[in-house]
Structures are given as C-alpha cells and as structure tokens.
C-alpha cells in the first residue's frame, strides 16, 4: 500500500489533475503468513492475483516490489516504469542496536529468506537462524519483545515506511548481496494500453531499468526460483555497470562472481555473471 501511494504521489506531481483509485488485492503470499519462503509454492505468490486483475481489466496499473516478480515476464503485460531505486541493501534490526559482528554467539536471527539465511551462516556460522515471516511491523515487534535477537529486512521497505530509525546496521552489499531487484518498484501495465503506458512511463528511470534487467538476467541464467539462495546487485558508475552475484547450496558452500561493462550492455552482463556463477558452482560440486 505504501509503495502504491508513493507512485501515485509521483504521478500527481507530474499530472496534478490525475485521479487515481486504489484497488486492494490480497495475494497468495498474504494468505500464507505462517509459512516461510521455502514452503510457499513457486514464484509470483505476491503478484499472480494482481496480474490477473490487470489482465482482466479490473485495474490499469499494478505496483509491485520488483524482487517479488517472476524472472520471466507474464505474456500480455509489460513493466512501463522502474522508478528510481531506493536503497538496495539489507538492514539488520537488533535489540540494543548491535551490529551483525557484535551479536553474541548463538544469537537468534529471524528471516524467511533462503538467501539471507545462507549469507548469515556464511558471515556468522555461530548464529542460530530461524524462519520468520509477517509484515515489517510484525518482524520488528518480534525483536522488541525478545522472540528473536535480530531480523534482517530490506532497507528500502524500512525507509518507505518511515522506520529507518529501527535500523541497527546497513549490511555491506559486497559481503551481503541483496536480492534480485531489491529496492526497485515495478509499475506494470497491459501491453496494448497505450494511455496507461504513456502516463506511467514518465516515471521510468533509465539506470534503474538497466540494473533491474541485469539482475533479472542473473536469475534467469541460473534458473532461480523463490527457494534459490541467490543474490544479484547491479550498480552504475560513470556509465559502467558492475554486477555482483551470490549463490549457495544446501551444504553451506557459497559462490560469488562479478561482471563489468557498459551500462548499455547491462542485461548481457547479468547473463554472463549468472553463467559464471553456474560454472563456479558446477566446478565446486565436481571438486
């Protein structure tokens, strides 16, 4: 809801007379709050019902967290805008405002993300990591009431909700690779809806789109699902794009790759980084 209101506000700054109505759609992911990410069936649980409403004309624009979207696009739909990216990094929320390094041995960390679990085990194998889901407020409350010692959340979500003061530490993306498209919103429309595309596309940010394409290409290259402990982070610097990746297996082995090149080749760079990740993992498994 907060993401939707932010997009509406941005549109109305460009078009002060534009009228927008919000249609609230409860997703499969909302219905499965008791399950962790590894137990939810397939990709798109936070977007499928919303996309169905878009395809049948009940709504004209869908606002998603881009990281919740399946790697492959849904036929008949397109992303008309990737607005400027929020903070892509992960954030630690801990009672007593401890950093990840300062947490005591055996501290209990809550997360429903296989990627975060793998990177927590990689950086602090002494920690205890348990599944934890729910909205941002719920997970922060579990820290404050002592159910867990800390949680890892997207910094973007905390900032958008005005909860940045709850952040104990921003985790370095070179050590704690973000999820594919973390911090990016996607404004989705029907492919043939020219009016909606014309209006929404004014919010598109070229660099954010390129980074989203690069990171999604990583996920496609390795055939990632919502259960895959994979991270990808693309950043731009002076027209150059750097794509960093992370992958783990069930045994705790981790692999990382990096690809660099022109921002105009972002999608290709993402594919190259993903393929390199697969080769590294295959070599490690054979060894």
What does this structure look like?
By secondary structure, the chain is of the alpha+beta class. It has helices at 2-14, 28-31, 48-55, 114-123, 136-144, 155-160, 194-200, 206-222, 266-286; strands at 62-65, 77-81, 90-94, 108-110, 128-130, 150-154, 169-170, 185-190, 230-237, 240-248, 254-262. The strands form three sheets. It has a five-stranded mixed sheet with strand order 5-4-6-3-7, with helices on both faces. Helix 4 links the parallel strand 4 (108-110) and strand 5. Helix 8 packs parallel to helix 9 (266-286). The model is unreliable at 37-41 (pLDDT under 50).
The average pLDDT value, as a whole number, equals: 91
Question: What is the number of helices?
Answer: 9
Question: Helical proportion?
Answer: 25-40%
Spatial gap, N to C terminus: 48 Å
CATH topology of the largest domain: D-Maltodextrin-Binding Protein, domain 2
Shape: globular
Question: CATH H-level name of the largest domain... which superfamily?
Answer: Periplasmic binding protein-like II
Q: How do the SSEs run, as a string of H and E?
A: HHHEEEEHEHEHEEHHEEEH
At the first level of CATH, the class of the largest domain is Alpha Beta
Number of strands: 11
Instruction: Give the uncertain stretches in residue-range form.
Output: 37-41
Largest sheet: 5 strands, mixed
Structural class: alpha+beta
> What is the percentage of strand-forming residues?
15-25%
- Level-2 CATH architecture of the largest domain: 3-Layer(aba) Sandwich
* Overall number of structural domains: 3
